Amino acid sequence: MDVRMYAPFVESFFEVLPDFGVKELKRGRLALKDKLVAAANVNVLVGLSQDVRGNVAYSMTEGTARNIASFVMGFPVGELDEMAKSAVAELANVLASRAAIILERGGLLVSISPPTLIAGKNVTLLSHVRILAVEVFTGAGLIEANIGLET
C-alpha cells in the first residue's frame, strides 16, 4: 500500500473544508479493512478511474451530514432533505476532485465519477481491494474517508 496514493484524499480535507468555514480539523485513527462496512448512516461514494482506479466513500452520521450541509449552503439545516443531501454529495465531489488534482500534480491522471449518496445503517459495499479508513475530526463532526485503490 503506497501512502503517496492515499495521502491526497486526507490532504484534500485540510485544503477544502476551511474554504467552507469548517475549522478544527484533525486526523484521527487509520485502519485497514477487507471490505467497506460504513458504520455511519450517510455515505457518499465517488469512483476513480484512469491511472488511479478504485473508490472513496465519505461516511458520516446524519448529524454531521446536516452540519456539513449547513456549512456548504451557508445557513442552518435542520433536516437532511434532498437539497441538504445534494450539498453533502457536492462536498464529497469537491474533496475527491481536490485529491485528483493533487495526484495529477504527481503525474497521475485521475477521473472521478459523479458522487452517489447512500443513506442507511450498516451499509456494505463489496470491494476486491483493501480499504484504508481514515478518520477526520472536523468542526462539523467526524467524517471517515474509506479509500480503496487498485495498486
List keywords for this structure.
7-stranded antiparallel sheet, Chemotaxis protein chec, 9 strands, two-stranded antiparallel ribbon, alpha+beta, 3 helices, about 150 residues
Helix-strand pattern, N to C? Answer: HEEEEHHEEEEE
Beta-strand segment tally: 9
Number of domains: 1
Oligomer: single chain
Q: In CATH, what is the class?
A: Alpha Beta
Structural class: alpha+beta
Overall spatial form: globular
Ends distance: 7 Å
> How confident is the prediction overall: mean pLDDT?
92
List the helices and strands and how they pair.
Blueprint (H helix, E strand, L loop, with lengths): L2 H14 L9 E8 L2 E3 L3 E9 L2 E8 L1 H12 L8 H24 L4 E3 L3 E4 L3 E3 L5 E8 L2 E10 L1
Antiparallel strand pairs: 1-8, 2-7, 3-4, 3-5, 3-6, 4-9, 8-9
What does this structure look like?
- There is one protein chain.
- By secondary structure, this protein is an alpha+beta fold.
- Helix content is 33%, strand content 37%.
- The chain is built from three helices and nine strands, in the order αββββααβββββ.
- Strands 1, 3, 4, 5, 6, 8 and 9 form a seven-stranded antiparallel β-sheet that branches. A two-stranded antiparallel ribbon has the order 2-7.
- The longest helix has 24 residues.
- The radius of gyration is 14 Å and the shape is globular.
Explain briefly what this protein structure is:
This protein is 33% helix and 37% strand. With 151 residues, the protein is an alpha+beta fold.
